[in-house]
Every structure is written in C-alpha cells, then in structure tokens.
Design a protein that fits this description.
With 119 residues, the chain is of the alpha+beta class. The chain has 3 helices and 4 strands, in the order βααβββα.
Length: 119
C-alpha cells in the first residue's frame, strides 16, 4: 500500500479556499482508523491542513458534492487533492505518520503554491 497524503499550510492562507484534501474511507478500514488516531487530531492545525482542509468521503457514496475524481477510487484510505473541485493529485493508502507528512508535503509542493513554513 502506498503512503497517504496530509497537507500543512504555509504562508498562503488565501489558497485555503481553492484546495481541499478529500479522504476517501469506508467503515471497517483499519488504515483509516490508524490515520484518524495518528494524523486527524493535528491535521487542521498544520500548515498543510490550513492550506488544504480535509473533506471526508465514503467510498461507496462517491465524491462529495462539487468534487470530481479523475479515476475510480479502489483503496481506502485514498487522499485526493482537489483544486476548485477537480482532482489534481492523489495518494493511495496509509503506512504511518512518519511517511505521510513528508509525502503529503511533497505532493502539495509539486501540485500547488504550497511551501513548507520556515521556523
């Protein structure tokens, strides 16, 4: 299973309206539960989470209203980065927080104006 994506915000809060991170999940998904335990509490407080707020979607119900996926979602969790409702990138699976944060940051930096905050 591939790493999943999470997004902290840096600098450009103006972009927060344009980007969302859709987490496609399903009941009974152990990897979704692990993400909920390890990442979900911190996500909205991070630069990534402010840049691309999280939206949850059930695998069996399809995309949230106003969101379009490029292709079918087959695995949970799948994290889909959307801009103005259209998919621009995705991460399939979750293998732990040590992998998730850097992969998410790379995904955001590659597909958006996001940059890591400097402390």
């Amino acid at each position: 299973m591939a790493a999943c994506v999470a997004v902290p915000l840096s600098g450009g809060a103006a972009f927060a309206e344009d980007y969302r991170l859709v987490m496609v999940e399903q009941p009974g998904c152990a990897y979704c539960a692990a993400w909920d335990d390890e990442i979900a509490p911190a996500y909205p407080n991070t630069a990534e989470g402010q840049f691309a707020p999280l939206v949850r979607a059930d695998l069996r119900e399809g995309p949230p209203e106003g969101v379009t996926y490029e292709r079918r979602v087959n695995f949970t969790p799948t994290f889909i980065l959307v801009e103005d409702g259209a998919e621009i990138a995705r991460l399939e699976g979750y293998v732990g927080q040590d992998f998730f944060w850097p992969v998410l940051a790379q995904l955001l930096e590659s597909h958006t104006e996001f940059t890591q905050p400097t402390n």
